[in-house]
């Protein structure tokens, strides 16, 4: 039986049993990455360069659209998007998933410019999703046992260390955790682990 709707449910949780947004973002990223590898100049128009400091403001977000460093980056980032994205979409809903993904991308690219890291990649955006999931795990509302909660805490401690060392994945982890905490505190209807397991019926918004 379909559960009654809740006015506090995150927007976009309808059909959350089918993580359409995660797959859509994976597909778009695959297309833009392929274009970057095949079309001369396409990737250069999107990646991080010093042009950001000269009015090319789009380079604060577009680097998450391409993975230009070869098969290892494409496969790893795609796999991590599926792993984190599917669960995050069921926990937070599509609108808040999008906010976490973009917050990670913005934080990661901004940190990259601070430490002069060029190139590009979607992993910083995925780190935003991972940070949101860490906040969910630590909140207790996920109903997780102690070991995964310890792992989530260790992930955020590691994120702080990475940020301090100049790695561009630390800042998006922390940004995602902060935003995820805000979402959790402003939402009463937060699913537990049992609600987000594969095969569970979709939760209505």
Can you tell me about this structure?
The chain has 205 residues and is mainly α. The chain has a single domain, classed as Up-down Bundle (Rhomboid-like fold), CATH 1.20.1540.10. The protein has helices at 20-38, 71-114, 123-139, 146-165, 170-185, 193-196. The longest helix has 44 residues, at 71-114. It is globular, with a radius of gyration of 17 Å. The two termini are 15 Å apart.
Short description:
With 205 residues, the protein is mainly alpha-helical. It has a single domain, classed as Rhomboid-like fold (Up-down Bundle), CATH 1.20.1540.
What is the topology?
Blueprint: H1 20-38, H2 71-114, H3 123-139, H4 146-165, H5 170-185, H6 193-196
Helix pairs in contact: 1-2, 2-3, 2-5, 3-4, 3-5, 4-5
Identify the notable features of this structure and list them briefly.
0% strand, globular, Rhomboid-like fold, mainly alpha, 59% helix, 6 helices, 205 residues, disordered C terminus, disordered N terminus
Total domain count: 1
CATH topology: Rhomboid-like fold
| Order of SSEs | HHHHHH
- Mean pLDDT, to the nearest integer, reads 89
Uncertain spans, ≥5 residues at pLDDT below 50?
1-16, 201-205
Tell me the Rg in angstroms.
17 Å
* Separation, N- and C-terminal Cα atoms: 15 Å
- What would CATH call the homologous superfamily? Rhomboid-like
Shape: globular
Number of helical segments with 4 or more residues: 6
> What about the largest sheet?
none
Give a count of the beta strands, DSSP E runs of length 2 or more.
Answer: 0
Strand content: under 5%
Helix content: 55-70%
Structural class: mainly alpha
Query: How is the quaternary structure best described?
Result: single chain
């Amino acid at each position: 039986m379909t559960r009654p709707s809740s006015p506090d449910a995150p927007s976009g949780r309808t059909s959350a049993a089918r993580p359409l947004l995660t797959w859509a973002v994976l597909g778009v990223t695959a297309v833009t990455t392929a274009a970057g590898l095949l079309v001369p100049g396409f990737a250069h128009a999107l990646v991080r360069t010093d042009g950001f400091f000269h009015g090319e403001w789009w380079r604060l977000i577009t680097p998450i659209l391409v993975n230009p460093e070869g098969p290892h980056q494409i496969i790893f980032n795609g796999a991590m998007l599926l792993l984190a994205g599917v669960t995050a979409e069921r926990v937070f809903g599509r609108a808040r998933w999008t906010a976490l993904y973009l917050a990670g991308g913005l934080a990661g690219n901004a940190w990259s410019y601070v430490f002069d890291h060029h190139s590009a990649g979607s992993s910083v955006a995925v780190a935003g999703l991972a940070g949101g999931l860490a906040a969910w795990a630590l909140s207790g509302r996920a109903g997780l046992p102690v070991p995964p909660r310890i792992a989530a805490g260790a992930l955020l401690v590691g994120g702080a260390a990475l940020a301090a060392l100049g790695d561009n994945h630390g800042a998006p982890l922390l940004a995602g955790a902060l935003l995820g905490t805000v979402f959790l505190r402003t939402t009463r209807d937060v699913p537990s682990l049992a609600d987000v397991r594969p095969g569970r019926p979709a939760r209505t918004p």
